[in-house]
Design brief:
Blueprint (H helix, E strand, L loop, with lengths): L2 H14 L23 E2 L8 E4 L4 E6 L17 E4 L2 E12 L4 E4 L4 E4 L3 E9 L4 E8 L6 E10 L5 E15 L13 E5 L5 E5 L5 E6 L15 E4 L7 E11 L4 E11 L3 H31 L2 E3 L3 H16 L1 E4 L3 E4 L2 E2 L5 E2 H13 L3 H18 L8 E2 L5 E3 L5 H16 L2 H21 L22 E2 H20 L3 H21 L1 E2 L4 E2 L2 E3 L1 H17 L3 H16 L6 E3 L9 H4 L5 H11 L3 E2 L2 E3 L28 E2 H13 L3 H12 L21 E2 L4 H11 L2 E4 L4 E4 L10 E8 L2 E9 L5 E7 L5 E7 L4 E5 L4 E5 L2 E6 L3 E8 L1
Parallel strand pairs: 35-39
Antiparallel strand pairs: 1-7, 2-3, 3-4, 4-5, 5-6, 5-11, 7-8, 8-9, 9-10, 10-17, 11-16, 12-13, 13-14, 14-17, 15-16, 18-36, 19-20, 21-33, 22-23, 23-24, 25-28, 26-27, 28-29, 30-31, 31-32, 34-35, 36-37, 37-38, 38-43, 39-42, 40-43, 41-42
Helix pairs in contact: 4-5, 4-6, 4-16, 6-7, 6-8, 7-8, 8-9, 10-11, 14-15, 14-16
Length: about 800
């Protein structure tokens, strides 16, 4: 029996016996909205796909049609529903209507609308009722609960009286790896308190959930004097289903609302009750506060460009960045990787994402995430090594891949350039110093400056000397040298600079493949390469990629014909990480341009393939999509992060138009499936919200196209723009740099006159606008601006609030 039929059977009897009942409360508090709504409607073809109602404590995942199917793979079928980490509260909830003739299950909305603060489902005009019904929900900031409200509009000329059934599906259970911290999953039990609210608890643990409404329930179980009844849950697990019935009367042409408040705690029943009460009494104010806060996020790094799709995506990625924040008392507060299957903390995901967060002014969460990663890494590893993945109960799954440690060092330097806080640098430099020592002493067994071990590509056997580990290690030593200089450690600075220079030279000399015009995937032994080739051939053959099979077999034959007794570079998979030397700007320019052009062969209309040998016929074309396997896998995927790395690399070598082309490819995924969001795997697979997506927008747009490159500890902001040729009128306003705010405006008149205007809000800061030397241009600038030429750069600087420059051809 399917779920709908089960509910029909179990709900029908109770509402058929309705008699004189209390009418639904009319004392509803209307939600107010003082802001012009930002909203995006979903597509009909994606109603049967996930959405998230985001909150930093409680969040909810279901389908856009309003249903709550079992979804997710990390805990099979359990990643949806309502969560208050480290526990799940509900599998879901639902509503049914009982008229004189029908019992109607509201399980398929006709329309989904996403807001920065929440979402709504429109069930349209419900058949045979003359009722139009919508469901709206949001999770208040910092609260262990959420609010759902239904609006029922009587579209007829007659008064309507009907019954309602509220179905609540509990599933109080621990998060992933709960067993490592003695978390258990007992059978759920439900009772009702004196106010008529449902109280669910776990039979073995202190897990609690309260579900309240502002309607008066009808007696459902007269034998036990309960205003609800229970049935076995239609979901897997140890949950239970509770049903409450209500009577509703709506005059002709009018509408009524009622609310459902869901709260929970993994600590005590009292907390669940107090949170529920607070939300019930104050949710309209909480909603306004959340709207106001998110509206303020939109105003930071506010972009205006000719490409309105990118402009819109950039705004919504600011909201997405807020959606993935997770706050778990006694554990920490930080950004998580993605929803629904990665709602916990990762080292490398944060190390990419937080660079983007700094460019959009979301600085508080940057510092709390770093504090969390640093403290847990110290507790677990104690040697500077940074963890890879930790669940929300504090259990660490993977103590760290090799790349995470050098990337942490570079993250610290990048954040410091934006916040200028020397205490911040002093706090984390010991971790950086220990981490680099561990990297070279424990992981570089042959002493060739290339640490061994897994990087970003989690392919079995790819754990020798990886190109991304080498590139990020080089950058880490360069950044650590800069940190040592600020902290007055000249000997360490020199040591780090020399190491960085040596690694850069070795990467260009030893990882480069002239045959493939690409950096190698890895350096390893012939035996390692031959084993990986066999696996890769099976993969390519399974995916029906004959070109890849042919190439791999040719490489195998060359290795066997020309064996080497020592490790050497290999190009096998064409993994995206071969582009990290350009992302880190350490590739020689001639090699960089060749490699970037090679990379273009492994892109489709949505961006870069994770593994080049997986490319399909859409590579190089304007058509393509991705249909993931039923068992979750990244095989054959195009992902936002590899595309972001390609964008950054193109800009680093002076090709903003090519960078923009990749950004446009990536933006095709925006709102493709979930309105207002961008999937992890382009266009519609994997996580529906992914933290590191902001890296691919914030860094290229703010730091490269508009060229805002702060050195906050020196109170200097460099502006080194490289604007795409099609962005003839563009602005970026309210970019937060420590206690300063920067805005940059570009304009080009119809007569070809160009103007660059930069403003700042703080005193005693210096603006330095740097442009490539061009003797064919005449410059004019405002009073207080100094101009000097150094090498091939024209520099314009001021300590005033405005720097205005006009450019005309001679």
């Amino acid at each position: 029996m399917n779920k709908s039929n089960l509910l029909l059977t179990l709900c029908g009897w109770s509402l058929l016996t309705l008699n004189a009942c209390k009418e639904a409360s009319e004392g509803q508090t209307e939600e107010t909205n003082t802001y012009q709504e930002v909203a995006l409607d979903g597509k009909a073809e994606y109603l049967d796909s996930p959405f998230v109602t985001a909150g930093d404590r409680v969040y909810m995942v279901g389908h856009q049609d309003g249903s709550f199917p079992e979804l997710g793979w990390h805990i099979t079928g359990e990643m949806g529903g309502v969560w208050n980490h480290p526990i799940k509260l509900l599998d879901g909830f639902g509503l049914s209507l009982k008229t004189e003739r029908d019992l109607i299950i509201l399980d398929k909305a006709d329309k989904f609308t996403n807001y920065p603060w929440g979402n709504s489902h429109d069930y349209g005009n419900v058949a045979n009722t003359d009722l139009h019904i919508t469901r709206t929900q949001f999770a208040p900031d910092g609260k262990q609960g959420m609010v759902v409200w239904y609006t029922l509009e009587n579209k007829s000329t007659e008064d309507k009286s009907f019954g309602l059934n509220l179905h609540v599906y509990s599933d109080l259970m621990p998060t992933w790896l709960g067993e490592r911290t003695d978390m258990k999953d007992g059978k759920d039990i439900v009772n009702m308190n004196k106010d008529g609210h449902l109280y669910f608890r776990d039979s073995e643990m202190e897990y609690h959930c309260i579900v309240s409404t502002n309607l008066a329930a009808i007696m459902r179980d007269s034998e036990n004097a309960n205003n609800f009844s229970t049935i076995e849950s239609p979901y897997k697990g140890n949950g239970i289903t509770a049903l409450q019935s209500f009577n509703m009367q709506i005059p002709a042409g009018e509408s009524k609302k009622f609310q459902v408040v869901i709260s929970g705690s993994y600590e005590s029943r009292a907390i669940s009750y107090s949170e529920n009460k607070d939300i019930r009494e104050n949710w309209p104010e909480m909603l306004e506060a959340k709207k106001a806060r998110l509206a303020s996020l939109a105003q930071q790094s506010k972009l205006s460009i000719p490409d309105k799709k990118i402009e819109e995506a950039f705004e919504w990625l600011k909201y997405n960045s807020d959606w993935v924040i997770r706050d778990v008392p006694h554990i920490g507060r930080g950004i998580t990787a993605g929803i629904p299957d990665y709602p916990w903390w990762f080292g490398v995901d944060s190390e990419y994402a937080l660079k983007g967060y700094m460019t959009i002014g979301q600085t508080d969460i940057v510092e709390s995430t770093i504090a969390l990663l640093d403290s847990v890494s110290e507790a677990v590893n104690g040697n500077g090594k940074i963890i890879h993945e930790m669940s929300t109960n504090g259990a660490v799954f993977n103590p760290g891949n090799i790349n995470e440690t050098p990337q942490f060092a570079s993250l610290i330097w990048e954040v410091f350039k934006w916040n200028g806080d020397k205490a911040f640098l002093e706090r984390y430099f010991p971790t950086v110093e220990k981490g680099l020592s561990w990297l070279m002493e424990a992981q570089d067994k042959d002493g060739n400056l290339f640490p061994d071990g897994f990087g970003m590509m989690e392919i079995h056997g790819l754990d020798s000397e990886m190109i991304d580990v080498a590139a990020y290690t080089q950058r880490a030593f360069a950044d650590a040298a800069a940190m040592a200089e600020v902290l007055g450690k000249p000997e360490l600075e020199q040591q780090y600079r020399e190491t960085a220079a040596k690694i850069a030279a070795k990467i260009n000399a030893e990882f480069w493949s002239e045959e493939f015009n690409s950096f190698a995937d890895f350096i390893g032994t012939d035996q390692q390469a031959l084993h990986l080739i066999e696996d890769a051939i099976v993969r390519a053959d399974t995916l029906d990629k004959p070109w890849a099979v042919e190439e791999l077999k040719a490489t195998r034959a060359k290795i066997k014909a020309n064996p080497s007794a020592t490790p050497r570079p290999f190009v096998l998979h064409h993994n995206w990480v071969v582009n990290t030397p350009m992302e880190m700007k350490i590739a020689d320019p001639d090699k960089a341009l060749k490699a970037l052009d090679t990379g273009a062969n492994y892109a489709n209309p949505f961006g870069m393939f994770v593994t080049g040998i997986d490319r399909d016929e859409s590579a190089g074309s304007d058509d393509g999509s991705f249909k993931g396997p039923e068992i979750f896998s990244y095989t054959g995927a195009v992902m936002t992060l590899p595309t972001a790395v390609q964008i950054v690399g193109e800009n680093n070598y002076g090709r903003p138009d090519k960078a923009l082309n990749y950004l446009q490819k990536m933006t095709r995924s925006f709102s493709y499936a979930l309105p207002g969001s961008m999937y992890e795997v382009s266009p519609d697979y994997g996580m529906i919200v992914q933290a590191w997506n902001i890296y691919g927008y914030g860094v290229p747009i703010v730091q490269q196209f508009f060229g805002i490159q702060p050195m906050a500890h020196k109170k200097i902001v460099y502006i080194r723009p490289q604007m795409p040729s099609s962005w003839n009128n563009a602005s970026l306003e309210n970019v937060k740099v420590a206690d300063n705010t920067i805005s940059v405006y570009f304009e080009e008149s119809e007569f070809g006159e160009k103007q660059i205007r930069v403003t700042q809000t703080a005193d005693q800061w210096e603006l330095r606008l740097e442009l490539p030397l061009d003797n064919s241009i005449i410059y004019s600038f405002n009073e207080g601006v100094a101009n000097e030429t150094e090498g091939d750069t024209d520099r314009f600087s001021t300590r005033g609030k405005v720097l205005e420059l006009k450019l005309n051809q001679k």
